[in-house]
């Protein structure tokens, strides 16, 4: 596998991993969460062993794979629009092109996808990517192919991902798959199956390999990383049936974090996504113990109202959430905290919404992702709760918390003014090719003049100014060799 630098984007130095003997071309694009982007790197690796190199040119592709998201209706509409685009390219420029859909929408729709979208030749669910070579053989013989079986074991731990659109500095490392929390608005448990964790040895091996290859910042990835639990393989829910030996030698999330931090003491370790009902303080204490575990926790809460949290089947109250926030800030005072929030969940009143506002006022998040409720077919809420909050009210509530979050982000970012922070250089600043852009351990973007520094350097930067989301400064010295 050799690396080819994409000259066009020198500033970002995107690396395309190619096999010189491969002759077929794969165009792969991903939508949705980081899990999907990480899965696409697994798929690219499986396809590389089947004679495919990745291309960024749709018109020359033999195979087009789109990794789909189903979290909101809008995400699915985006995919349908892309399929129209592929249809036009196939008709006008590339009649041999085959099209496959991967990910959560493929798992949700299954054979309906083949019926509804004639351009689609291949439908593959998130746990069936190893079957791609067989499925492609069927497609090459002119038949449609599908595999949407969810697995109890699959973690793809034995596959080395092919890094796609990589800056060569930051990478995702997936550690768990699936989710057992049945939040009533969420399709993930239906599209990604039950929770299972990856062998810690294969995770450490990937971390060591990434360090050797120059990566300096990794994110341990899962729908719900806090419930990571390795006891020799199998579903999380079957842990109680494990032997005493398996239980005694099991590895939970705080142990895994410690193993990763010790394996590469200079590698930045991040993780996402946490769930307040599963995050335990031993994880926060492990973060405090190791300098290279970054002080940022993405801690979706979704609502500030106890009544709505109950209706969402989120197994904690706002008071318990406040206690967790207080403990995090007691153990790690400069820990950045970010959120996911949904407004307009069925039956949400103005009073419920004001509970969300007051929760945000209490926490003052560094940043967040905020959405209006989107009814998902097959979910508990989708089946049993009427989507009764008018669209206009949903939109107004969303705008209110977006504005509030921007004000809080400004307050939190300003806390770093006149301080010196460690920044890992990731790429050229979007605004100026004389400046580098990178992130602090708190996941805050920082830009500063390039000077003699290069991508992959850890740099001490004195903060002189900021916007609501970006720190601006001057480099004062290297941080870590
Ligand atoms: S924790 Fe809830 S919201 Fe998150 S993936 Fe699982 S079911 Fe979905």
UniProtKB/TrEMBL annotation:
Binding locations of [4Fe-4S] cluster 2: 179, 183, 186
Domain TRAM residue range list:
414-477
Q: How is the cofactor bound?
A: Binds 2 [4Fe-4S] clusters. One cluster is coordinated with 3 cysteines and an exchangeable S-adenosyl-L-methionine.
Q: Which PROSITE patterns match?
A: MTTASE_N (PS51449), MTTASE_RADICAL (PS01278), RADICAL_SAM (PS51918), TRAM (PS50926)
Domain MTTase N-terminal: from-to ranges: 24-141
Question: Where does the record say this protein resides?
Answer: Cytoplasm
Q: Where is the Radical SAM core domain?
A: 165-412
The family assignment reads: Belongs to the methylthiotransferase family. MiaB subfamily.
State the protein's name: tRNA-2-methylthio-N(6)-dimethylallyladenosine synthase
User: In which organism is this protein found?
Assistant: Algibacter mikhailovii
The beginning of the lineage is:
Bacteria, Pseudomonadati, Bacteroidota, Flavobacteriia, Flavobacteriales
């Amino acid at each position: 596998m050799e690396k080819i630098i994409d000259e066009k984007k020198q500033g970002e130095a995107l690396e395309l991993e190619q096999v010189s003997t491969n002759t077929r071309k794969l165009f792969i694009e991903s939508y949705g969460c980081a899990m999907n982007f990480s899965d696409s790197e697994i798929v690219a690796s499986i396809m590389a062993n089947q004679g495919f190199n990745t291309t960024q040119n749709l018109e020359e592709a033999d195979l087009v794979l789109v990794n789909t998201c189903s979290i909101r209706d809008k995400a699915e509409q985006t995919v349908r629009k892309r399929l129209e685009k592929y249809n036009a390219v196939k008709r006008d420029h590339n009649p041999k092109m085959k099209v496959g859909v991967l990910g959560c929408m493929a798992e949700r729709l299954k054979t309906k996808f083949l019926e509804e979208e004639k351009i689609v030749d291949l439908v593959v669910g998130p746990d069936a990517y190893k079957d791609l070579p067989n499925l492609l053989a069927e497609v090459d013989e002119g038949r449609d192919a599908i595999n949407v079986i969810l697995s109890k074991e699959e973690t793809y731990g034995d596959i080395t991902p092919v890094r796609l659109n990589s800056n060569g500095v930051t990478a995702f490392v997936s550690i768990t798959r699936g989710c057992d929390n049945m939040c009533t608005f969420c399709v993930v448990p239906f599209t990604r199956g039950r929770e299972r964790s990856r062998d810690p040895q294969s995770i450490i091996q990937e971390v060591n390999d990434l360090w050797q290859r120059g990566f300096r910042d990794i994110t341990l990835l899962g729908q719900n990383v806090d419930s990571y639990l390795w006891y020799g393989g199998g579903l999380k829910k079957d842990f109680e049936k494990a032997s005493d030996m398996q239980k005694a030698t099991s590895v939970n999330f705080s142990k895994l974090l410690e193993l990763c931090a010790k394996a590469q003491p200079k590698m930045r370790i991040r993780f996402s996504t946490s769930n307040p009902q599963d995050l335990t303080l031993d994880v926060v204490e492990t973060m405090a113990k190791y300098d290279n575990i970054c002080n940022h926790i993405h801690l979706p809460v979704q609502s500030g109202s106890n009544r709505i949290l109950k209706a969402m089947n989120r197994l904690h109250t706002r008071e318990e959430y406040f206690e967790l926030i207080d403990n995090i800030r007691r153990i790690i005072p400069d820990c950045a905290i970010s959120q996911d929030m949904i407004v307009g969940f069925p039956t949400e009143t103005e009073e419920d919404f004001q509970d969300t506002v007051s929760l945000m006022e209490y926490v003052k998040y560094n940043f967040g992702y905020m959405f209006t409720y989107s009814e998902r077919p097959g979910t508990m809420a989708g089946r049993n709760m009427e989507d009764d909050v008018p669209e206009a009210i949903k939109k107004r509530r969303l705008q209110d918390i977006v504005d509030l979050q921007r004000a809080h982000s400004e307050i939190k970012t300003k806390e770093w003014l006149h301080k010196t922070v460690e920044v890992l250089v990731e790429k050229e600043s979007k605004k100026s090719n004389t400046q580098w852009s990178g992130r602090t351990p708190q996941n805050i973007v920082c830009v500063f003049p390039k000077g003699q520094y290069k991508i992959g350097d850890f740099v001490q930067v004195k903060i002189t100014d900021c916007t609501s989301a970006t720190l601006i400064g001057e480099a004062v010295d290297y941080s870590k060799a």
